[in-house]
């Protein structure tokens, strides 16, 4: 755009002018996803870049570095942040606590600085809820199958018991009839 080009031209010609472009100021992510907090800065001198995270849990400094020099990443983010020369950072394996505001400050060696903000929303994956329902359904189906088998076995046992009882009754009535005919 024309504005960005003018700022870039000014920053190359005049010391103390810093420009910062944030192409995506709002990022939606899901838990365990990697996100890129993308920015692009320009300045005539050496710049210091600083990233901070602000949320309901407080403010945390993520990283600070000078272009082409040192990188200082806080211990909380040590294994989860990658820095880039253009000022961007990549945050690995985001969690619910990573939701909030991310502030970048670019300060030129002459003292001029500029700020940018990126809002990150982190959502939990709802597939976990569906997984719970599927497991519950499978459990209930298994219990139902076991109960049906148990009822079938009980029914078979009852039929066998009734058959034996009927057979005994028939045999004893036949003996009584035979005994009665003999007595006459």
UniProtKB/TrEMBL annotation:
Residues 1-19 form the signal peptide. The chain crosses the membrane at residues 130-154. Its main location: membrane. Residues 24-123 form the Immunoglobulin domain. It is found in: Membrane. GO terms for cellular component: axon; dendrite; plasma membrane. InterPro entries: CD2/SLAM_rcpt (IPR015631), Ig-like_dom_sf (IPR036179), Ig-like_fold (IPR013783), Ig_sub (IPR003599), Ig_V-set (IPR013106). SUPFAM superfamilies: Immunoglobulin. Gene3D superfamilies: Immunoglobulins (2.60.40.10). Keywords: Glycoprotein, Membrane, Signal, Transmembrane, Transmembrane helix. It comes from the Eukaryota. This is V-set and transmembrane domain-containing protein 5. It comes from Pygoscelis adeliae (Adelie penguin).
């Amino acid at each position: 755009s024309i504005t960005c080009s003018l700022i870039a031209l000014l920053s190359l010609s005049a010391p103390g002018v810093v420009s910062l472009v944030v192409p995506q100021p709002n990022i939606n992510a899901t838990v365990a996803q990697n996100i890129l907090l993308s920015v692009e800065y320009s300045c005539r001198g050496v710049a210091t870049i600083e990233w901070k995270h602000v949320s309901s849990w407080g403010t945390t400094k993520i990283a600070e570095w000078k272009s082409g020099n040192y990188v200082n990443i806080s211990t909380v983010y040590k294994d989860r942040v990658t820095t880039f020369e253009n000022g961007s950072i990549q945050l690995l394996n985001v969690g619910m606590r990573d939701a909030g505001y991310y502030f970048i400050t670019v300060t030129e060696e002459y003292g001029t600085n500029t700020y940018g903000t990126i809002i990150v929303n982190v959502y939990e994956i709802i597939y976990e809820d569906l997984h719970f329902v599927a497991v519950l359904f499978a459990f209930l189906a298994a219990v139902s199958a076991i109960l049906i088998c148990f009822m079938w076995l009980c029914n078979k046992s009852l039929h066998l018991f009734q058959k034996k009882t009927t057979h005994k009754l028939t045999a004893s009535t036949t003996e009584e009839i035979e005994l009665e005919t003999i007595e006459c």
